[in-house]
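Morning!

As promised:
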Amino acid sequence: DAKTTQPTSMDCAEGRAANLPCNHSTISGNEYVYWYRQIHSQGPQYIIHGLKNNETNEMASLIITEDRKSSTLILPHATLRDTAVYYCIVIGYSSASKIIFGSGTRLSIRP
Amino acid sequence: SQTIHQWPATLVQPVGSPLSLECTVEGTSNPNLYWYRQAAGRGLQLLFYSVGIGQISSEVPQNLSASRPQDRQFILSSKKLLLSDSSFYLCAWSVGGTSGFQETQYFGPGTRLLVL
C-alpha cells in the first residue's frame, strides 16, 4: 500500500474550516484514500474515503487532486470536539487491507 | 445500525496471567473481524483477522491467539501475558463478502491493557 505524508500538527480556530493535507504520490490506480481520526484514548473513527472524485458526507469533505497524488480533508466548521489525530491512509481494493496508520496530524481547535 | 462492543474497557493483569478480551458486533451478519493493537503514541498493528466462524488468520506470531466462536463474536486470548503485551487493543469490523477486505473498517472503543 502507498505511503502517505501528513504534517505533524495543525491548529484551527473554532468555527472556521480545518483543511488537513495529505500527500500520497505513489498511489496506484486501485487504491482508495481513507481518513480516520482518533480522539485521545478512543478507537479510531472512520470519516470519509474516496477514489478519484471529491466526496462529502455529514462529517467532512474530501478533495482529491486530479493526479491523485494528494488530498485534503475539510472539516467545514471545526468545533472543540474535532480535536484529534487525523490519519490519511491508502488502501488497495484487492489487498487484505490491514490498516496501517502513520503518525497522522494532531489537530488542535482553539476557542 | 451497526454497533461494536469491546470489554473490558481497561484491565490490569499480572505477568504470566491469562487474558481474554471480547468483541461483539450487532446489526450485521457475517462481518469480517479484526484485532489490532496500538502502543502509546504509535500506529496500529494488525494481529488477527477473520472472515467467518472458526476462520482466523494471524498476522504477527506471538503469545496471543484469537477465536471466533460465533458469527459476531471475536475473542483475543493469551495463556501467559508478558510485560510487552501492555497496549491498547482494538477490534474492528467490515462488511463481509467475497470482494475482499477493502470495505471500510469500523473500530470499537478499545481495551487498555496494563501488564505489571
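The first strand of chain B starts at residue 3 and ends at 7.

Hope this helps with the figure draft.
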